[in-house]
Every structure is written in structure tokens, then in C-alpha cells.
């Protein structure tokens, strides 16, 4: 007697077949979405190959140029940015690309010409860690642009623009693709022997609590008092500290194990360091979809923030619900 469950739940499912299956469940789906994700899949496989071969191909190190934030660009930042634009640019349903590496958005086509979506991305987050082989990653968000209007910057910053998908690819000990399209978070791992991202786990669920905090404590003297109160509390509460200094790697550990990741404002960076559009927002969608919380240090939900500038920064506090609650309690000086 064949056990149908054995053949229906544990199929060898690729990222592409997973997305196509998801579209089949939505009769109104147009195939636009899988067309975009296939470009992100191709781009990240290509970037992953470049990252693995960086020292062999002598593409480590910095360029003389600085990016829009006055940060020295790594050679692989630019290479990764070009790869993503080459893959996404050919998708006729994308109107706008917003990259950490470029001051201005790339306007591919107006909404009237079919540009229904924008893609925000950080091509290679954490790239300053490349020369010591620490996990780095590509972060992306897929935005459906509002009906009408000309597309472009106005559409991207419109309150009617909707983030319909978010994810990251971590180039670590394995190449992991985390994806949400609004119905939970699924994890895929690149099987190099067949060149496909294969489904590793459906429905990633953040544990409600885990005594792990992740923050760059070297800046403690520059943190707001509430953050220092929280750290004192965590030290007295037998927490473990884990900080990699690469957001994709730190958030990935938080999604898998639980805990809290904190990048607060500091006296020298009162607005925070992490960028809203292509770091905080996609990570916030993933964390919320996995049952966690993503807020600014004053407790405002990241996904309720309305961007006014492509490269604006924000403080970020995300992770397990109870861990974020502990943090916010310490931040509340009246508590
Ligand atoms: P710091 C990498 O440069 C990055 O943008 C994030 O990936 C990471 O979380 C953060 O900066 C690390 O910043 O100040 O601790 O080195």
C-alpha cells in the first residue's frame, strides 16, 4: 500500500517549483513574480560563485571609490551590483531598481510600459568581512508599485507601494536562500551538484525566547541609556553574546536559533547605521513572517515606517517576541 504522504510532502522541491506551486494557488497570479524570483536566483548563484572564488580570482579588496554612504566600496560590491542589475534588468515587469551601491534609482521602464514592480537590494551586505571569509549576503525586497503614476522615485516612496516579498541569500558554509512572499518563511539551500536551490525547511518559526543577544558592544559608551540598561540586565541574566558584524549572518542565526539582534542609534549615528529600504524592511518582513518582532529602538514597527529617502537609516531591534519585549522594557525609563 503506497503511503501518499511519503510522496506528497517530501518531494525534492526546487525554489522555482516552490514559487510556481505558490502561483498555482493564486488564480489571479500572472507569473510576474516567479519571473522576478528566477532572476534573483540566477543573480545570487552567480554572486555566490564570485564570493567563493574571490581570493583565487583576486577580486578581494577595496576600490578607490566610495558608495553613496561615503563607505569604501569593495570590488565585489560593484561586481555583485552589476550582476543583479544584469539579471533583473531583463525582466520586463520591473520598473525600478534601488541599490545600496547607487545614489540614484535605476528607472528601467514606466508603470505604463509594464514596470509593475521595484526591487530594493543590498548586493553584498557585510562585504568588508570578505577577506576573512565571514558569511556575507544579498538582501532583497520586491515592491509592487501603485497603479497609475509614472513609476520612478515617486512610486517607490509612495504609501501605496507594497512589499510583496523579501529575502536574503547567505553565502556562508552553505548558500542559503530565505524567502517570504507573505505566507511564512521558507529556507532553500543551493545544491551545487545540480545548480538548484532546494527546499530545506518550510515555515521557519522563531522561538519566542532564547537568551542570546547580538549587538556591537564596542559602542556601549555611545548607546542610549536604555540600551546600556538592557545590556546590564542581560549580563545579570546569564545571556550569551553572539555578534558576527554581518547583518545577514546575524539575522540568519536569530531566525534559526532565536534571540535578539540590535543595531541602535549611537551618539555619532543618531539615526542608526542600517538602511531602511534594503536592510531593515526586508529583514523585518522575514522576522515577522517567522513569528518574531522587528521594531526601531523606540518600539515603532519597522514595517510601519514610511520611507522619505531611498538611503535613509534606522535603528533596528528584531528577533524573538519575548526578547524584544525584555529590550523595550529596559528602554522604557519609566518602567
Ligand atoms: P558595525 C555591514 O557593514 C553592516 O552594514 C551590516 O551587515 C552589519 O550588521 C553592520 O554593518 C555591522 O556594523 O558597526 O558593527 O561594524
Please give a quick description of this structure.
With 335 residues, the protein is α+β, with helices and mostly antiparallel strands. The protein has helices spanning 4-8, 15-24, 32-52, 75-88, 152-156, 225-236, 247-257, 276-289, 321-331, and strands at residues 62-66, 72-74, 94-99, 106-107, 117-125, 136-144, 162-171, 175-180, 185-191, 196-201, 212-214, 240-241, 260-263, 293-295, 316-319.
Describe the structure.
The chain is of the alpha+beta class and 335 residues long. It folds into two domains: 8-201, Fructose-1,6-Bisphosphatase, Chain A, domain 1 (2-Layer Sandwich); 212-332, D-Maltodextrin-Binding Protein, domain 2, CATH 3.40.190.80. 31% of the residues lie in helices and 24% in strands. The chain has nine helices and 15 strands. The strands form three sheets. Strands 4-3-5-6-7-8-9-10 form an eight-stranded mixed beta sheet, sandwiched between helices. A hairpin with a 6-residue loop joins strand 3 and strand 4. Helix 3 packs antiparallel against helix 4 (75-88) and helix 6 (225-236) packs across helix 9 (321-331). It is globular and about 50 Å long. It starts with a helix and ends with a helix. It binds 6-O-phosphono-alpha-D-fructofuranose.
Keyphrases for this structure?
single chain; 335 residues; alpha+beta; Fructose-1,6-Bisphosphatase, Chain A, domain 1; D-Maltodextrin-Binding Protein, domain 2; 2 domains; eight-stranded mixed β-sheet; five-stranded mixed β-sheet; 15 strands; 31% helix; binds 6-O-phosphono-alpha-D-fructofuranose
Amino acid at each position: 500500500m503506497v503511503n501518499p504522504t511519503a510522496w506528497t510532502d517530501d518531494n525534492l522541491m526546487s525554489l522555482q517549483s516552490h514559487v510556481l506551486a505558490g502561483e498555482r494557488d493564486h488564480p489571479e497570479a500572472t507569473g510576474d513574480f516567479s519571473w522576478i524570483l528566477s532572476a534573483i536566483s540566477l543573480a545570487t548563484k552567480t554572486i555566490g560563485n564570485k564570493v567563493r572564488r574571490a581570493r583565487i580570482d583576486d577580486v578581494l579588496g577595496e576600490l578607490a571609490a566610495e558608495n553613496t554612504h561615503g563607505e569604501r566600496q569593495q570590488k565585489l560590491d560593484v561586481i555583485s551590483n552589476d550582476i543583479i542589475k544584469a539579471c533583473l534588468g531583463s525582466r520586463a515587469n520591473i520598473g525600478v531598481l534601488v541599490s545600496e551601491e547607487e545614489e540614484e534609482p535605476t528607472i528601467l521602464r514606466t508603470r505604463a510600459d509594464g514596470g509593475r514592480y521595484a526591487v530594493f537590494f543590498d548586493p553584498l551586505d557585510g562585504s568588508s568581512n570578505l577577506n576573512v571569509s565571514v558569511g556575507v549576503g544579498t538582501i532583497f525586497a520586491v515592491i509592487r508599485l501603485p497603479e497609475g503614476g509614472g513609476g520612478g522615485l515617486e512610486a517607490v516612496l509612495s504609501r501605496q507601494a507594497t512589499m510583496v516579498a523579501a529575502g536574503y541569500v547567505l553565502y556562508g558554509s552553505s548558500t542559503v536562500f530565505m524567502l517570504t512572499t507573505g505566507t511564512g518563511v521558507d529556507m532553500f539551500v543551493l545544491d551545487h551538484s545540480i545548480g538548484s536551490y532546494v527546499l530545506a525547511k518550510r515555515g521557519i518559526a522563531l522561538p519566542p525566547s532564547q537568551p542570546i543577544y547580538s549587538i556591537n558592544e564596542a559602542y556601549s559608551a555611545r548607546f542610549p541609556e536604555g540600551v546600556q540598561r538592557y545590556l546590564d540586565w542581560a549580563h545579570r541574566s546569564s545571556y550569551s553574546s553572539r555578534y558576527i558584524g554581518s547583518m545577514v549572518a546575524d539575522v540568519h542565526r536569530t531566525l534559526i536559533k532565536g534571540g535578539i539582534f540590535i543595531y541602535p542609534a549611537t551618539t555619532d549615528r543618531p539615526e542608526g547605521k542600517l538602511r531602511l529600504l534594503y536592510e531593515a524592511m526586508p529583514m523585518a518582513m522575514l522576522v515577522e513572517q517567522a513569528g518574531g518582532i522587528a521594531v526601531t529602538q523606540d518600539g515603532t514597527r519597522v514595517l510601519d515606517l514610511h520611507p522619505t529617502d531611498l538611503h535613509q537609516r534606522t535603528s533596528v531591534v528584531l528577533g524573538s517576541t519575548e526578547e524584544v519585549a525584555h529590550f523595550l522594557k529596559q528602554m522604557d525609563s519609566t518602567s
